[in-house]
Amino acid sequence: MKFTGIIPARYASSRFPGKPLADMRGKPMIRRVYEQVAETVDRLYVATDDERIAAAVRAFGGQVVMTSTEHRSGTERCREAYNLMADDSEVIINIQGDEPFIHPEQITLLKSCFDRPDVEIATLVKPFDADGDFETTLFNPNTPKVALNLRGEAIFFSRSVIPYVRARECQSWLAAHTFYKHIGIYAYRAATLHAIVKLPPSPLEQAESLEQLRWIEHGYRIQTAITHRETIGIDTPEDLEKAIRLWSVVSSQ
Fold it and tell me: To bridge 41 with a disulfide, which of 5, 121, 155, 249 should be the other Cys (CB 3.0-4.6 Å)?
């Protein structure tokens, strides 16, 4: 089975314009992401609508695909890039361009979901630390939570805490139940990717502003794999500064 990785990247961002080109210890962020995952897939492209990003990718020898400025999501941009490259891979992996600490092991884990022929879409989840700070982690609306069925399929994503642990103080919830947070990387079979970009917006998606709820509402199953590695998404310049400081600490150990 062939796997193609696509990294959607756009220049415009209300909180961090030009984020893919932000310097991370001598390399642009988009290059850090590219190099992290390049050995884990059969083909790898950056899909962008901005020539500045495209030029940066070409400069380090990466493959780039120019896509429309009209896309509403990374999923749509991945589908167009896959079509433009006339790719024949069976599975496409949508890799977030703002997570330079994604680990190759996590891509391999995601790929393993497709050992089962019935899997249409796959993503990663990570258990919340039972000793973590529930207010800044579990109750953080910027960290989507996932509820799973007994087959490990996602049955709901929410910015709220799910499930509600009855008859316990919320401070003890992390110790009483295994909660999962969503790691925002997806893999889709090619036919499924073509189909889901045509789906109309759905009520739960609009309420939570989480694209993956559209797929569930329309009857698609999302298989999950559990990772225990932490990833760091970068949404603001402040996030970038924190990530670089953490990187410096880890590198010195």
Answer: 5
pLDDT of residue 15: 77
The DSSP call for residue 225 is E
CB atoms under 10 Å from CB of 138, counted, come to 18
User: What is the pTM assigned to this prediction?
Assistant: 0.93
DSSP codes, 45-95: EEEES-HHHHHHHHHTT--EEE--S--SSHHHHHHHHHHHTT---SEEEE-
Do residues 79 and 193 make contact, with C-beta atoms less than 8 angstroms apart? Answer: yes
- Two tokens, residue 244: 């670089």
pLDDT in tens, 118-168: 999 999 999 999 887 777 788 989 889 999 999 999 999 999 999 999 988
Q: What pLDDT does residue 253 have?
A: 42
The H or E element that residue 120 is part of is none
